[in-house]
Each structure stands twice: as structure tokens, then as C-alpha cells.
Amino acid sequence: MKEQIKWTFIDFSDNTPTIEMLEGRLGILALLDEESRLLSGSDQGYVNKLYQHFGTPAHKKIFTKPRFSNTAFTVHHYACDVTYECEGFIEKNKDTVPDELLAVLQASSFEFFESSEIRFGDRFSHLNASYAELKPAKTEPTAAGRGGGRAVARKATLGSTFKSSLITLMDTINNTKVHYIRCVKPNEAKTPWAFDAPLVLNQLRACGVLETIRISCAGYPSRWSFAEFVDRYYMLVHSKQWASDPRTFCETILSNVITLPDKYQIGLSKVFFRAGQVRS
């Protein structure tokens, strides 16, 4: 808008509602922890809470209940729909490292465990933080009629540990300049010189590479100021066509080099190019 070029809004997939459903205050992970801490918590109780919270018309695009199951739910992820069977969820979520074993590992002077603690320090820190969280127990009257209570350790669950690691990861990403390297598996058998096209395509789609390319092609990702463009490409036209005005000079170069006018736009101070135009 500032450069006054013609543009249209680019439609893109917004994954925010799905992320909020997974990580929100009353999201899938939070409800799993809540049900895991109940004495009467069960897999069925957990999935019933999911149906109650997300089985509504407002969430039908990201969450559905399978037609022939009362113990499963389907999340419509960015890449594809995934159905989760809740049997064993509560038991698995409570399957944490015992306090005593964790203390032994961290107190060990064995070189292997010391190096492991360095490698997985964040993982241990999440567990330690959760173990350290104390909450006052309900006060129970003693035989003498006096109130008394004790602090009960609130153990970390796998869900809370995973959520904490995601928060730490996002903090790291937000505080750094990130460069992404996409690793694509060419085949399941890890065989050299074997290329499984459907497998590779699914990975590219799941990683958002195809969506990124689509958005890039729909817009003008390459942008040059008039002075930069002239300084780089002035030799593409005869010296008789050179102009003192940078904008006019840019228009002359572009009209001689690019035959399709929809491949670029000239703004007030910059030239905007479709993906691949400057490189080609």
C-alpha cells in the first residue's frame, strides 16, 4: 500500500485455531493433565471432556468425533487428518521418571551420565521444575482437633513436560535469527539412489514447503530500490538509453529484458518482482 502497487490478498492456511486447541489453557494437553491428576481419572473421562469442549460447530473444521468410535477423536492438522485412539492415554501420561532414579542420574559421576545430562539438560530441568512445584494439601483435622497439612509434590506428566519443552523452543526461536534446513527422507528403506515420489511429496506438504512456494509465487518476494537495481543491471541496455532518473532508468531496463509485464511492478521507490525473475 505504501508503494501504491496493485495487489490482492493472498489466501493462506492459518493453523492458529489448531495450535490453540492443542496448547491452550483448556486445550487437549491441558485436559489430559487435568484428567491424569484425578483419582478417578480415566481414558473415557478424558475423551468425553474433549467431546464436550471441542465437539461443537465452532470447532468442526479442526476437531471431529469418529462416527463409529466413542474412545477416539480426529484432529484436522495442517498436513492431514489424524485420528487418535485414547486407550492408554492416562496411564502413558503418568509414566514419568521416578524422583529417586532422576536424583541418582543427576548425582552420578559416571562420564556417560554427565554427558547425557549436558545433552538433555533442558529435559531434566523441565522435570525438576515440575517436581519442585509444591501445593498445599487439604487441611485435615488431627486427633487433637488441630488443623494440619503437608505439601504434596506435583509431579510432571509427559504432557506437561512436552508443553514446557515447546515453550522453551518458542522462546529460543523468538530470541534468535532462525535459518531452517529441511531434511527430506527419499525412501523408507534408507536405500541409496531410491526416490519415493509420493513419500517425498507428503513430507514437502507436511513441512509447509509447497504452501510457502505457492504464497511466494503469488506475491512479489524480490524487492529492489531503484538505485540498487540500476547499479546492478545498467549494462543490460545500450548506453544511449541510460537515464539520469533512477525510476526512468529502471523502466527502460525492464521493458528491454522482461517481456511479461505481470512479472514485476514498479512502486514509488522500489521494483517488485515475482519469484525467480531476478535470478533468471
UniProtKB/TrEMBL annotation:
Cellular component GO terms held in the UniProt record: cytoplasm; membrane; myosin complex
MF GO annotations: actin filament binding; ATP binding; hydrolase activity; microfilament motor activity
One of the GO biological process terms: actin filament organization
Start and end residues of each stretch annotated as Actin-binding: 166-188
Keyword field: Actin-binding, ATP-binding, Hydrolase, Motor protein, Myosin, Nucleotide-binding
Gene3D superfamilies with a match to the protein in the record: 1.20.58.530, 3.30.70.1590, Kinesin motor domain (3.40.850.10)
Domain annotation Myosin motor: ranges: 1-280
Family of the protein in this entry: Belongs to the TRAFAC class myosin-kinesin ATPase superfamily. Myosin family.
Record-given protein name: P-loop containing nucleoside triphosphate hydrolase protein
